[in-house]
Amino acid sequence: MKKIGLFGGTFNPIHRGHLRVAKQVKQGFGLDQVILIPAALPPHKMPGGVVAAENRLQMILLAIEDTAGLGVSDVELKRTGLSYTIDTVQHFKNTLAGNAQIFLIMGLDAVLEIDSWKSYDKLLEKIAFIIVNRPLGGHSDNTGWKRLEKYLISRISPDYTFHAFQSCYRRPGCQPIHVCQIDALDVSSTRIREMIKKDRPIDRLVPPKVAQYIISKGLYS
Question: Which of 71, 108, 143, 200 is 20 to 30 A from residue 96's alpha carbon, by CA?
Answer without folding.
Answer: 108
